[in-house]
Protein backbone atom coordinates (compact mmCIF):
# COMPACT_ATOMS: atom_id res chain seq x y z
CA UNK A 1 0.00 0.00 0.00
CA UNK A 2 1.41 3.37 -1.01
CA UNK A 3 2.19 5.92 1.65
CA UNK A 4 -0.34 8.39 0.22
CA UNK A 5 -3.16 5.88 0.54
CA UNK A 6 -2.01 4.98 4.06
CA UNK A 7 -2.04 8.65 5.07
CA UNK A 8 -5.50 9.14 3.58
CA UNK A 9 -6.94 6.00 5.17
CA UNK A 10 -5.39 6.83 8.53
CA UNK A 11 -6.73 10.38 8.45
CA UNK A 12 -10.21 9.29 7.33
CA UNK A 13 -10.27 6.50 9.91
CA UNK A 14 -9.45 8.90 12.75
CA UNK A 15 -11.97 11.51 11.58
CA UNK A 16 -14.59 8.85 10.82
CA UNK A 17 -14.30 7.15 14.19
CA UNK A 18 -14.38 10.49 16.00
CA UNK A 19 -17.41 11.64 13.98
CA UNK A 20 -19.19 8.31 14.48
CA UNK A 21 -18.65 8.38 18.23
CA UNK A 22 -19.79 11.99 18.45
CA UNK A 23 -22.86 11.48 16.28
CA UNK A 24 -23.76 8.19 17.92
CA UNK A 25 -23.67 9.77 21.36
CA UNK A 26 -25.63 12.78 20.10
CA UNK A 27 -28.29 10.67 18.40
CA UNK A 28 -28.62 8.44 21.43
CA UNK A 29 -29.17 11.54 23.57
CA UNK A 30 -31.91 12.96 21.32
CA UNK A 31 -34.60 10.49 22.39
CA UNK A 32 -34.12 10.76 26.19
CA UNK A 33 -33.63 14.52 25.84
CA UNK A 34 -36.99 14.91 24.12
CA UNK A 35 -38.64 12.68 26.68
CA UNK A 36 -37.22 14.68 29.58
CA UNK A 37 -38.47 17.88 27.95
CA UNK A 38 -41.89 16.34 27.43
CA UNK A 39 -42.05 15.20 31.05
CA UNK A 40 -41.05 18.66 32.25
CA UNK A 41 -43.83 20.26 30.21
CA UNK A 42 -46.36 17.64 31.35
CA UNK A 43 -45.43 18.23 35.00
CA UNK A 44 -45.97 21.98 34.60
CA UNK A 45 -49.29 21.41 32.81
CA UNK A 46 -50.54 18.97 35.46
CA UNK A 47 -49.64 21.34 38.27
CA UNK A 48 -51.41 24.29 36.61
CA UNK A 49 -54.53 22.28 35.74
CA UNK A 50 -54.70 20.82 39.24
CA UNK A 51 -54.90 24.34 40.63
CA UNK A 52 -57.54 25.40 38.07
CA UNK A 53 -59.91 22.47 38.72
CA UNK A 54 -59.39 22.20 42.48
CA UNK A 55 -62.74 23.91 43.29
CA UNK A 56 -64.71 21.61 40.92
CA UNK A 57 -63.08 18.50 42.40
CA UNK A 58 -63.83 19.70 45.94
CA UNK A 59 -67.49 20.25 44.99
CA UNK A 60 -67.71 16.98 42.99
CA UNK A 61 -68.60 18.83 39.80
CA UNK A 62 -67.09 16.54 37.19
CA UNK A 63 -69.69 16.89 34.46
CA UNK A 64 -69.93 20.64 34.13
CA UNK A 65 -68.02 23.81 34.84
CA UNK A 66 -64.29 23.95 34.26
CA UNK A 67 -63.89 20.21 33.73
CA UNK A 68 -66.56 20.14 31.03
CA UNK A 69 -64.79 22.96 29.19
CA UNK A 70 -61.46 21.19 29.62
CA UNK A 71 -62.85 17.98 28.09
CA UNK A 72 -64.29 19.89 25.17
CA UNK A 73 -60.96 21.66 24.60
CA UNK A 74 -59.05 18.39 24.37
CA UNK A 75 -61.35 17.18 21.60
CA UNK A 76 -61.08 20.23 19.36
CA UNK A 77 -59.23 19.70 16.06
CA UNK A 78 -55.94 21.46 15.27
CA UNK A 79 -54.35 22.55 12.04
CA UNK A 80 -50.73 23.31 12.84
CA UNK A 81 -47.29 22.56 11.42
CA UNK A 82 -44.63 22.37 14.11
CA UNK A 83 -41.05 21.97 12.98
CA UNK A 84 -42.27 20.63 9.67
CA UNK A 85 -44.56 18.06 11.35
CA UNK A 86 -48.35 18.36 10.95
CA UNK A 87 -50.41 18.38 14.17
CA UNK A 88 -54.21 17.86 13.92
CA UNK A 89 -55.36 17.06 17.48
CA UNK A 90 -54.50 17.62 21.12
CA UNK A 91 -52.11 14.95 22.31
CA UNK A 92 -52.94 15.21 26.00
CA UNK A 93 -55.28 12.88 27.90
CA UNK A 94 -56.29 14.15 31.35
CA UNK A 95 -57.84 12.14 34.15
CA UNK A 96 -58.64 12.98 37.79
CA UNK A 97 -58.99 10.62 40.72
CA UNK A 98 -60.41 11.16 44.16
CA UNK A 99 -58.44 10.68 47.33
CA UNK A 100 -58.96 6.89 47.10
CA UNK A 101 -57.52 6.66 43.60
CA UNK A 102 -60.86 6.10 41.80
CA UNK A 103 -61.03 7.83 38.42
CA UNK A 104 -63.76 10.48 38.52
CA UNK A 105 -62.92 12.34 35.30
CA UNK A 106 -61.28 11.20 32.07
CA UNK A 107 -61.02 13.48 29.04
CA UNK A 108 -60.94 10.37 26.86
CA UNK A 109 -64.05 9.01 28.62
CA UNK A 110 -62.73 5.46 29.01
CA UNK A 111 -61.54 4.99 32.61
CA UNK A 112 -64.20 6.67 34.78
CA UNK A 113 -64.90 4.53 37.85
CA UNK A 114 -61.73 2.45 37.56
CA UNK A 115 -59.35 2.05 40.47
CA UNK A 116 -55.99 3.67 39.55
CA UNK A 117 -54.73 3.76 43.12
CA UNK A 118 -51.91 1.31 42.34
CA UNK A 119 -50.51 3.19 39.35
CA UNK A 120 -47.36 5.05 40.32
CA UNK A 121 -48.58 8.43 39.12
CA UNK A 122 -51.66 8.27 41.34
CA UNK A 123 -50.18 6.25 44.21
CA UNK A 124 -47.18 8.56 44.76
CA UNK A 125 -49.09 11.81 44.17
CA UNK A 126 -51.78 11.00 46.75
CA UNK A 127 -48.95 10.51 49.25
CA UNK A 128 -47.44 13.93 48.56
CA UNK A 129 -44.67 12.71 46.29
CA UNK A 130 -43.84 13.28 42.65
CA UNK A 131 -45.79 10.74 40.61
CA UNK A 132 -44.95 9.68 37.05
CA UNK A 133 -44.83 6.49 35.01
CA UNK A 134 -44.14 5.16 31.50
CA UNK A 135 -46.55 2.41 30.40
CA UNK A 136 -46.87 0.50 27.15
CA UNK A 137 -50.47 0.29 26.00
CA UNK A 138 -49.52 -2.76 23.88
CA UNK A 139 -47.02 -5.14 25.55
CA UNK A 140 -43.57 -5.34 23.87
CA UNK A 141 -44.40 -2.47 21.49
CA UNK A 142 -42.12 0.47 22.20
CA UNK A 143 -44.17 2.86 20.05
CA UNK A 144 -47.25 2.37 22.25
CA UNK A 145 -45.52 3.87 25.33
CA UNK A 146 -47.48 6.61 27.10
CA UNK A 147 -46.01 9.02 29.64
CA UNK A 148 -48.18 9.80 32.70
CA UNK A 149 -47.29 12.74 34.96
CA UNK A 150 -49.50 13.65 37.93
CA UNK A 151 -49.95 16.57 40.31
CA UNK A 152 -51.97 16.73 43.56
CA UNK A 153 -55.35 18.46 43.66
CA UNK A 154 -55.50 20.37 46.94
CA UNK A 155 -58.10 21.98 49.10
CA UNK A 156 -55.85 24.31 50.99
CA UNK A 157 -53.01 22.05 52.20
CA UNK A 158 -55.16 18.89 52.09
CA UNK A 159 -54.82 16.54 49.09
CA UNK A 160 -58.28 15.70 47.78
CA UNK A 161 -57.25 13.96 44.57
CA UNK A 162 -54.74 13.70 41.74
CA UNK A 163 -54.70 15.03 38.18
CA UNK A 164 -52.69 13.15 35.58
CA UNK A 165 -51.61 14.43 32.18
CA UNK A 166 -50.91 11.57 29.73
CA UNK A 167 -48.93 12.04 26.52
CA UNK A 168 -48.18 9.24 24.03
CA UNK A 169 -44.50 9.01 23.09
CA UNK A 170 -45.64 8.42 19.52
CA UNK A 171 -46.75 12.06 19.48
CA UNK A 172 -43.13 13.21 19.59
CA UNK A 173 -41.71 10.32 17.58
CA UNK A 174 -41.84 12.37 14.39
CA UNK A 175 -39.81 15.13 16.03
CA UNK A 176 -37.26 12.62 17.34
CA UNK A 177 -36.89 10.95 13.96
CA UNK A 178 -36.61 14.31 12.23
CA UNK A 179 -33.86 15.41 14.66
CA UNK A 180 -32.00 12.13 14.22
CA UNK A 181 -32.29 12.39 10.45
CA UNK A 182 -30.85 15.91 10.51
CA UNK A 183 -28.01 14.81 12.74
CA UNK A 184 -27.15 11.92 10.41
CA UNK A 185 -27.32 14.20 7.37
CA UNK A 186 -24.88 16.62 8.94
CA UNK A 187 -22.68 13.71 10.00
CA UNK A 188 -22.58 12.45 6.42
CA UNK A 189 -21.74 15.98 5.23
CA UNK A 190 -18.97 16.24 7.83
CA UNK A 191 -17.47 12.93 6.75
CA UNK A 192 -17.69 13.97 3.12
CA UNK A 193 -15.91 17.27 3.81
CA UNK A 194 -13.33 15.42 5.90
CA UNK A 195 -12.70 13.06 3.01
CA UNK A 196 -12.27 15.96 0.58
CA UNK A 197 -9.88 17.72 2.97
CA UNK A 198 -7.97 14.46 3.46
CA UNK A 199 -7.69 13.93 -0.29
CA UNK A 200 -6.45 17.50 -0.78
CA UNK A 201 -3.89 17.21 2.01
CA UNK A 202 -2.71 13.81 0.77
CA UNK A 203 -2.47 15.05 -2.81
CA UNK A 204 -0.30 17.96 -1.71
CA UNK A 205 1.94 15.82 0.52
CA UNK A 206 2.28 13.18 -2.18
CA UNK A 207 3.11 15.83 -4.78
CA UNK A 208 6.00 17.02 -2.62
CA UNK A 209 7.09 13.46 -1.88
CA UNK A 210 7.03 12.58 -5.58
CA UNK A 211 9.43 15.44 -6.31
CA UNK A 212 11.72 14.21 -3.57
CA UNK A 213 11.50 10.60 -4.81
CA UNK A 214 12.44 11.70 -8.35
CA UNK A 215 15.44 13.53 -6.92
CA UNK A 216 16.50 10.47 -4.87
CA UNK A 217 16.10 8.20 -7.91
CA UNK A 218 18.33 10.49 -9.99
CA UNK A 219 20.97 10.52 -7.28
CA UNK A 220 20.79 6.75 -6.92
CA UNK A 221 21.22 6.32 -10.68
CA UNK A 222 24.22 8.62 -10.71
CA UNK A 223 22.49 11.26 -12.81
CA UNK A 224 22.94 14.97 -12.26
CA UNK A 225 20.07 16.13 -10.09
CA UNK A 226 19.01 19.54 -8.82
CA UNK A 227 17.24 19.75 -5.48
CA UNK A 228 13.56 20.57 -6.26
CA UNK A 229 11.62 23.30 -4.49
CA UNK A 230 9.75 21.61 -1.66
CA UNK A 231 8.35 24.63 0.16
CA UNK A 232 8.97 25.15 3.86
CA UNK A 233 7.58 21.90 5.25
CA UNK A 234 9.34 19.10 7.12
CA UNK A 235 9.70 17.34 3.77
CA UNK A 236 11.82 20.26 2.60
CA UNK A 237 14.02 19.83 5.67
CA UNK A 238 14.32 16.13 4.84
CA UNK A 239 15.22 16.97 1.25
CA UNK A 240 17.98 19.34 2.30
CA UNK A 241 19.27 16.73 4.75
CA UNK A 242 19.39 14.18 1.91
CA UNK A 243 21.21 16.71 -0.26
CA UNK A 244 23.75 17.29 2.48
CA UNK A 245 24.16 13.53 2.96
CA UNK A 246 24.63 13.13 -0.76
CA UNK A 247 27.41 15.70 -0.78
CA UNK A 248 29.11 14.01 2.15
CA UNK A 249 28.73 10.53 0.67
CA UNK A 250 30.17 11.60 -2.64
CA UNK A 251 32.94 13.21 -0.63
CA UNK A 252 34.04 15.58 -3.37
CA UNK A 253 34.57 18.60 -1.19
CA UNK A 254 35.93 16.48 1.62
CA UNK A 255 38.46 14.61 -0.49
CA UNK A 256 39.51 17.73 -2.40
CA UNK A 257 40.17 19.70 0.77
CA UNK A 258 41.80 16.77 2.49
CA UNK A 259 44.18 15.97 -0.34
CA UNK A 260 45.06 19.61 -0.94
CA UNK A 261 45.92 20.18 2.72
CA UNK A 262 47.70 16.85 3.11
CA UNK A 263 49.84 17.59 0.04
CA UNK A 264 50.68 20.99 1.44
CA UNK A 265 51.58 19.53 4.86
CA UNK A 266 53.77 16.80 3.37
CA UNK A 267 55.72 19.16 1.14
CA UNK A 268 57.92 20.44 3.95
CA UNK A 269 59.11 17.06 5.36
CA UNK A 270 59.54 15.60 1.87
CA UNK A 271 61.60 18.60 0.73
CA UNK A 272 63.71 18.45 3.90
CA UNK A 273 64.36 14.71 3.44
CA UNK A 274 65.27 15.19 -0.23
CA UNK A 275 67.65 18.09 0.47
CA UNK A 276 69.31 16.24 3.32
CA UNK A 277 69.66 13.06 1.25
CA UNK A 278 71.35 15.04 -1.54
CA UNK A 279 73.83 16.52 0.96
CA UNK A 280 74.61 13.03 2.29
CA UNK A 281 75.92 12.10 -1.16
CA UNK A 282 78.87 14.40 -0.53
CA UNK A 283 81.80 13.68 1.74
CA UNK A 284 81.42 15.19 5.19
CA UNK A 285 82.57 14.65 8.75
CA UNK A 286 80.86 11.79 10.65
CA UNK A 287 79.31 14.19 13.16
CA UNK A 288 77.65 16.23 10.44
CA UNK A 289 76.47 13.04 8.73
CA UNK A 290 74.85 11.92 11.99
CA UNK A 291 73.04 15.25 12.24
CA UNK A 292 71.71 14.92 8.72
CA UNK A 293 70.57 11.36 9.39
CA UNK A 294 68.79 12.56 12.53
CA UNK A 295 67.06 15.22 10.43
CA UNK A 296 65.86 12.57 7.96
CA UNK A 297 64.56 10.41 10.78
CA UNK A 298 62.79 13.36 12.43
CA UNK A 299 61.12 14.40 9.17
CA UNK A 300 60.13 10.81 8.45
CA UNK A 301 58.62 10.52 11.95
CA UNK A 302 56.72 13.74 11.28
CA UNK A 303 55.26 12.27 8.09
CA UNK A 304 54.33 9.06 9.86
CA UNK A 305 52.72 10.97 12.73
CA UNK A 306 50.78 13.13 10.27
CA UNK A 307 49.50 10.14 8.32
CA UNK A 308 48.61 8.14 11.44
CA UNK A 309 46.69 11.03 12.98
CA UNK A 310 44.97 11.79 9.71
CA UNK A 311 43.81 8.17 9.37
CA UNK A 312 42.57 8.21 12.95
CA UNK A 313 40.67 11.46 12.32
CA UNK A 314 39.10 10.17 9.08
CA UNK A 315 38.04 6.99 10.83
CA UNK A 316 36.36 8.81 13.70
CA UNK A 317 34.73 11.32 11.33
CA UNK A 318 33.15 8.51 9.35
CA UNK A 319 31.99 6.69 12.48
CA UNK A 320 28.33 7.53 13.17
CA UNK A 321 27.90 5.97 16.59
CA UNK A 322 29.57 3.98 19.33
CA UNK A 323 28.47 0.42 18.72
CA UNK A 324 29.37 -1.01 22.10
CA UNK A 325 29.52 1.62 24.83
CA UNK A 326 30.99 0.34 28.09
CA UNK A 327 31.41 1.82 31.58
CA UNK A 328 34.56 3.93 31.84
CA UNK A 329 36.37 4.49 35.13
CA UNK A 330 37.55 8.08 34.70
CA UNK A 331 40.08 7.90 37.54
CA UNK A 332 41.79 4.87 35.99
CA UNK A 333 41.58 6.46 32.55
CA UNK A 334 43.39 9.62 33.68
CA UNK A 335 46.10 7.55 35.35
CA UNK A 336 46.59 5.58 32.14
CA UNK A 337 46.89 8.78 30.09
CA UNK A 338 49.39 10.17 32.60
CA UNK A 339 51.44 6.99 32.29
CA UNK A 340 51.46 7.29 28.49
CA UNK A 341 53.16 10.71 28.74
CA UNK A 342 55.41 10.17 31.74
CA UNK A 343 58.58 10.21 29.63
CA UNK A 344 57.64 13.46 27.85
CA UNK A 345 56.73 15.10 31.13
CA UNK A 346 60.10 14.18 32.63
CA UNK A 347 61.94 15.33 29.52
CA UNK A 348 60.41 18.82 29.88
CA UNK A 349 60.72 18.77 33.68
CA UNK A 350 56.95 19.17 34.09
CA UNK A 351 54.86 18.18 37.07
CA UNK A 352 51.46 16.55 36.44
CA UNK A 353 48.68 16.89 38.99
CA UNK A 354 45.62 14.64 38.64
CA UNK A 355 42.46 15.48 40.60
CA UNK A 356 39.33 13.33 40.34
CA UNK A 357 36.11 13.96 42.25
CA UNK A 358 34.01 11.06 43.47
CA UNK A 359 32.29 10.94 40.08
CA UNK A 360 30.08 8.25 38.61
CA UNK A 361 31.30 6.30 35.64
CA UNK A 362 30.49 7.37 32.11
CA UNK A 363 29.83 5.09 29.17
CA UNK A 364 31.78 5.12 25.94
CA UNK A 365 34.78 3.85 24.00
CA UNK A 366 37.77 3.67 26.37
CA UNK A 367 40.37 3.69 23.56
CA UNK A 368 38.91 6.76 21.83
CA UNK A 369 38.63 8.65 25.12
CA UNK A 370 42.22 7.75 25.97
CA UNK A 371 43.40 9.03 22.60
CA UNK A 372 41.38 12.23 22.93
CA UNK A 373 42.67 13.01 26.42
CA UNK A 374 46.17 12.12 25.22
CA UNK A 375 45.87 14.77 22.52
CA UNK A 376 44.83 17.38 25.10
CA UNK A 377 47.72 16.44 27.38
CA UNK A 378 50.15 16.43 24.44
CA UNK A 379 49.13 20.01 23.59
CA UNK A 380 49.50 21.08 27.22
CA UNK A 381 53.01 19.58 27.41
CA UNK A 382 54.00 21.32 24.17
CA UNK A 383 52.94 24.78 25.37
CA UNK A 384 53.70 24.56 29.12
CA UNK A 385 56.88 26.38 30.28
CA UNK A 386 59.69 24.07 31.36
CA UNK A 387 59.46 23.26 35.06
CA UNK A 388 55.79 24.27 35.37
CA UNK A 389 52.79 22.19 36.40
CA UNK A 390 50.13 20.65 34.15
CA UNK A 391 46.80 19.81 35.78
CA UNK A 392 44.29 17.14 34.77
CA UNK A 393 40.96 17.07 36.59
CA UNK A 394 37.55 15.42 36.41
CA UNK A 395 34.44 16.85 38.05
CA UNK A 396 30.68 17.06 37.58
CA UNK A 397 29.79 20.37 35.97
CA UNK A 398 26.25 21.34 34.94
CA UNK A 399 24.93 17.79 34.89
CA UNK A 400 27.85 16.51 32.83
CA UNK A 401 31.33 15.21 33.53
CA UNK A 402 34.07 17.68 32.69
CA UNK A 403 37.54 16.26 32.11
CA UNK A 404 40.00 19.13 31.76
CA UNK A 405 43.67 19.68 31.07
CA UNK A 406 45.22 23.04 32.04
CA UNK A 407 48.70 24.42 31.50
CA UNK A 408 50.58 27.62 32.39
CA UNK A 409 51.61 28.41 28.82
CA UNK A 410 51.12 31.60 26.78
CA UNK A 411 47.43 30.94 26.16
CA UNK A 412 45.46 31.31 22.92
CA UNK A 413 45.92 34.41 20.76
CA UNK A 414 42.68 36.19 19.92
CA UNK A 415 43.10 35.57 16.18
CA UNK A 416 43.28 31.80 16.71
CA UNK A 417 40.34 31.26 19.08
CA UNK A 418 37.82 30.59 16.31
CA UNK A 419 40.09 28.23 14.35
CA UNK A 420 41.38 25.84 17.00
CA UNK A 421 39.23 22.93 15.83
CA UNK A 422 39.99 23.37 12.12
CA UNK A 423 41.76 20.46 10.50
CA UNK A 424 45.54 21.06 10.08
CA UNK A 425 45.43 24.41 11.88
CA UNK A 426 48.10 24.70 14.57
CA UNK A 427 49.98 27.32 16.53
CA UNK A 428 53.78 27.36 16.82
CA UNK A 429 54.97 25.96 20.10
CA UNK A 430 57.46 27.78 22.35
CA UNK A 431 60.25 25.41 21.31
CA UNK A 432 59.55 26.12 17.62
CA UNK A 433 58.03 22.69 16.94
CA UNK A 434 54.88 22.49 14.79
CA UNK A 435 52.11 19.98 15.39
CA UNK A 436 49.97 18.25 12.78
CA UNK A 437 46.89 20.32 13.64
CA UNK A 438 44.80 17.16 13.84
CA UNK A 439 44.67 16.62 17.59
CA UNK A 440 41.86 19.01 18.51
CA UNK A 441 39.65 18.03 15.54
CA UNK A 442 40.04 14.43 16.73
CA UNK A 443 39.02 15.46 20.27
CA UNK A 444 35.98 17.27 18.87
CA UNK A 445 34.83 14.21 16.91
CA UNK A 446 35.30 11.86 19.88
CA UNK A 447 33.28 14.22 22.10
CA UNK A 448 30.44 14.30 19.53
CA UNK A 449 30.42 10.49 19.31
CA UNK A 450 29.90 10.36 23.08
CA UNK A 451 27.08 12.89 23.00
CA UNK A 452 29.29 15.59 24.52
CA UNK A 453 31.41 18.52 23.44
CA UNK A 454 34.94 19.89 23.61
CA UNK A 455 36.22 23.39 24.27
CA UNK A 456 39.47 25.28 24.70
CA UNK A 457 39.68 28.66 26.45
CA UNK A 458 42.28 30.80 28.14
CA UNK A 459 42.62 30.14 31.85
CA UNK A 460 41.63 32.81 34.37
CA UNK A 461 45.17 32.96 35.76
CA UNK A 462 46.86 32.51 32.39
CA UNK A 463 47.66 29.49 30.31
CA UNK A 464 45.14 27.35 28.49
CA UNK A 465 42.17 25.30 29.75
CA UNK A 466 40.98 22.46 27.48
CA UNK A 467 37.92 20.41 28.48
CA UNK A 468 36.04 17.35 27.32
CA UNK A 469 32.38 17.39 28.46
CA UNK A 470 30.72 13.97 28.61
CA UNK A 471 27.16 12.94 29.55
CA UNK A 472 26.84 10.95 32.73
CA UNK A 473 26.26 7.24 32.60
CA UNK A 474 22.47 7.60 33.03
CA UNK A 475 22.16 9.64 29.83
CA UNK A 476 21.76 8.25 26.36
CA UNK A 477 24.94 8.27 24.26
CA UNK A 478 24.65 9.17 20.59
CA UNK A 479 21.49 7.16 19.95
CA UNK A 480 23.03 3.89 21.04
TrEMBL record:
It comes from Pseudoduganella guangdongensis. Its main location: membrane. This is histidine kinase. The keyword Glycoprotein does not apply. It is a multi-pass membrane protein. It is an enzyme of class 2 (transferase). GO terms for cellular component: plasma membrane. It comes from the Bacteria. It is found in: Cell membrane. InterPro entries: HAMP_dom, HATPase_C_sf, HATPase_dom, His_kinase_dom, HisK_dim/P_dom, HisK_dim/P_sf, Sensor-like_sf, Sig_transdc_His_kin-like_C. The keyword Transmembrane applies. Residues 203-254 form the HAMP domain. CDD domains: HisKA. Pfam families: HATPase_c, HisKA. Keywords: Cell membrane, Kinase, Membrane, Phosphoprotein, Transferase, Transmembrane, Transmembrane helix, Two-component regulatory system. The chain crosses the membrane at residues 6-27, 186-206. GO terms for molecular function: phosphorelay sensor kinase activity. It catalyses: ATP + protein L-histidine = ADP + protein N-phospho-L-histidine. Its EC number is 2.7.13.3. Residues 261-474 form the Histidine kinase domain. SMART domains: HATPase_c, HisKA. SUPFAM superfamilies: ATPase domain of HSP90 chaperone/DNA topoisomerase II/histidine kinase (SSF55874), Homodimeric domain of signal transducing histidine kinase (SSF47384), Sensory domain-like (SSF103190).
